What we know:
Elements: E1 12-19, H1 22-33, E2 36-39, E3 48-52, E4 55-62, E5 72-78, H2 82-91, E6 95-103, E7 107-113, E8 119-125, E9 140-147, H3 150-161, E10 166-170, E11 175-181, E12 184-191, E13 203-210, H4 213-222, E14 226-234, E15 237-243, E16 249-254
Parallel strand pairs: 1-4, 5-8, 9-12, 13-16
Antiparallel strand pairs: 1-5, 2-3, 3-4, 6-7, 7-8, 9-13, 10-11, 11-12, 14-15, 15-16
Amino acid sequence: MPIRTENQLGEPCWIDLMTSDPARSIAFYAALLGWRAVDTGAESGRYTMFFHGDAAVAGLTAQDPSSGNRDFWTTYLASENVAESVRAATAAGAAVLVPPQTVGNQGRLAVLTDPAGAAVGVWEAASHSGFGADNEIGTPVWHELITRDFAGAIAFYKEVFNWAPVPLSDTTDFRYSTFGHDEAMTGGVYDADGMLPPGVPSLWQVYLGVADVRASAVKVRELGGTVLREPWDSDFGTFAQLADATGAAFLLGQVESAAF
């Protein structure tokens, strides 16, 4: 598996799961993706790191089951300075959910909602740079912003995170841009204003790589998860939308080779 040694500024560099049942979540992803869970200790709030092989690929933290909050994945974008990114983001219309804070010797984080309401994390690396591997089976392979304000979202992330979006389609039926650096696209932005049900805010969603999406969707059901959208084929690959055993939503993308 190729080892990722650098995360470009403004690009997704980490994901973590907020779960009401850590043991059940750990068992689910271990069985589905072969992830190995490592408790990082009391000093880090019992944060769990997921590894695929020797590469760190995701994290997990517990939330109070009585809170009534849903379980969810968060995508983090790389920053050289979290405080500066938060200042720029709030000036551009974002709100702060979690203010900048230091995580041991790992780095610094914050969590924002962008002007269209999508929650996104910001990560300033110290000893933990982010993904140790991606775009492979068992790792994150794509990151997608589903937004009610496509033009506003593009402008916001260009200004705050220095994105250089590339339009993929610009019709009323399908408006989508990719983003990344040096022709290596790492994510996309989808105009979902006409698709999201009333009251559902914009959101980020993560795609995890598997060798066979259809077989993995069957396994998700066997592990207590839910298939939210049955596997489908597109010009870009085979995908499915799922919820894990505690209800956190994610997608699977079929990985045919080292490149996604």
